[in-house]
Each structure stands twice: as C-alpha cells, then as structure tokens.
Amino acid sequence: MSRRMGAVLGVVAVLVAACQAAACPDCEEPPRPVRPAWQSVVLPDTPGVPGRPVLRDATACAGRWYVVGGVVDLAGETRPAAWSSPDAMSWVPLPTAPVTFYGRQHVLSAAACRDGRLAAVGAKSGGAHGNPRTGTWRQASDGTLHEVDAPFERYAGPRAVNVARLAAGPQGWLIAGTRIDGAAVWISPDAAGFALVEGAPELAGDERGRTAAYDAVAVPSGWLMVGALLPPGGTALAPLAWSSADGRSWQRAALPVVDGRGQAQRVTVLGGVPVAVGPVRAGFGSWRLTPQGWRPAGGFGAAGPGVASAAGLVAVGQRLVAVTRDGDRHALWLSVDVGESWRVMTMPQPVPDSGDTAVAVTSTGDRLLLVTDDGKTSRAWWAGVSDLDR
Known about the structure:
This protein is mainly β. The protein folds into three domains: about 30-150 and about 350-390, no CATH class; about 160-255; about 270-345. The chain has one helix and 29 strands. The strands form seven sheets. It has a five-stranded mixed sheet with strand order 6-10-9-8-7, with no helix packed on it. It has a four-stranded antiparallel sheet with strand order 1-29-28-27, with no helix packed on it. Strands 2-3-4-5 form a four-stranded antiparallel sheet, with no helix packed on it. It is globular, with a radius of gyration of 23 Å.
C-alpha cells in the first residue's frame, strides 16, 4: 500500500511540476546569492569621552579610504568622527576641529574625496524646532578634518528642506539637496566654502511640479544629478535627472518608467556610463544614460512593508553594487551587466531598516568596503573584487 501511495504521489508531483511549467514556460529559478568572503576590520577608538561609533558613509580616492560618522557616549551626546586607511584593512582616526556649538555635536552623514583629500557633510538636530543644524567639513594637508563655518541660512533657515549627498570631481565639489522651491545644489571649487544655487530654471520646481534632488556624480561634461518630480495635484513621484557644465545652469530630463512612478535616488558611473537606481512601484529599478538619452536598464527586489529607498550605489571594477532599504531591512545587490540584471549579495550580518541604522559601500582598486550600523553596533568589512564572482 505504501509503495502504491508513493507512486501515486510521485505521479502527482510530476503532473504539478508539468502544469507549473506549462503555466510559466519562461520562468526560471532566481539566481543564487553572491556570497563575498567578508573580512572584518577594526576601527580604533577616537579621542574623547568613550562611546559607541555610529558609521554613516564611506568614500575612497587616490589609494586612500575614508569612513565617516560620529561617536555617541553613554549620556547620548554626539561628536563627529572619521577614519582613514591606505588599504581598507588598517585604520587610524582623523583629528577633527569643530568651530561651532553644533559642529562639536555633528554626526557626519555624507563624504566624498578627490586627490586624496576628504570633505564631509554633518548635522545635529537642535534649536527651538529641533531642525538639523547642517555644516560641511574639509580635510587639511596635515590630515585634520576642519569644520567650515558658514552662515546659518546657507543650509538651514526657513527655506531649508534637505541637504543630501556630496560629490567630488575635477571641477570641485557639489552637494545635492532640496530647498523650499525645489531641487538645489551647493557648489565649491575647494570645499572651503559652498555657494548655494537655488531657484535655478529647470532645477527648481515650476508649473510642472515640485522637484527634489538626492544624489550627484561628476562626469566629464560637469555634473549629473538625480531626483524626483511631484506633479501638481499628484501623489506619486516621477524620476528625474539633471546635467550641468558648471553647477549653476541645469538641464532636466525625465527618466522613463512604466507607470510614471518612481524616484532616482543614487547615481554613479561605470566604464563611462552613468547608471541610476531608485524605488519604483514593484521594487527597485535602474536606468542607464545612452547617447539617445536615459533608458530603463532593469528591475530588482520587491516592494517591502515600508517606504523603499536606494541607500547606495558604487562601481566596483566592472560591476555595480547597490544598497536598498525596504522598510524591513537593508539589502545588497550586484549587477555585472551595467544594471540590466541584479543578484542579491549576502551581508556579513543583518541590518534592519529603521531611523538609527545605516549601510554604505565604496570601492577603489580591487576592494569593496562595507560599513554598517544596526542601531546597536557599527562594523566595517572589505571584500576582494574577485569575491563578487562567487
């Protein structure tokens, strides 16, 4: 009886599989996750009151690696912190030199570098309304990271909305963000002081809707920035990109998306080709800039239980690595075909998606650097580029 029943069940299983195949002849098993051989690194304690490091961003250039964030002590007080390494394995803390009351409490949230010099954006909530008190930092020739004093309304004040990402390139430095009238930038030739560009035609909002900028990257022709547009009376954002030769005059381009919904939140350049990623209705999408304009590249992931966002994108050799958040957790994704297809990358430890967590990636040479903060501990790891072929 058991043999006969087993044979019947076997036939049923074959029939079910055949029916599934007939219903979806083109379906394929999802690709196996990429499993890098992550190597943990130790970031030494910084001078001052002992506390827990909070890591927020990482960058690399000219054979130098940087991690930025802050330290929070047992009393809940914060201070800025940064580390540097020649190889992504051995690290030293950088001296910091704040000059303002809030600068002494900054947590550095965004970083970029050029010619082996670091610059960063930091903030600390405070004041009567608890708004972020934002400022910038610039590394001197002796390695010290100095706060750059600036007028209060340069980054804050009644017209402030958001100061987002920092980019570096041959022309200097550019910060992407948003003011009350839409997308805006702050530009500088040397990171010693930034000039605000707001209300610029095509960049700011107009009769077509309100704009917001999230990230930028240097390109041979100047700058490329990505963000979103909220049409008048609309409830869904549409992805946008801008280009500029000087950071002051901008041209706008809509990124194609199936149902008109989405945001372009991170951008990088791989092999001379700009690629952007961001959330769309079904999960996440990627776009590639061609001589004919922006075109969809590929989709990946799935809609999560909360607000989805792209938290990072970096070129690693001939590959792309993206960081996403879906309201539940952070995830890493790898593309080997300029954004056309994506595979999940395993992380060395899970990182939930909440207000006090973060994941960032950067790369140079033959290594990828990952920094994480799960809300309790902050860690850093590196993996070789060859590991991404596993």
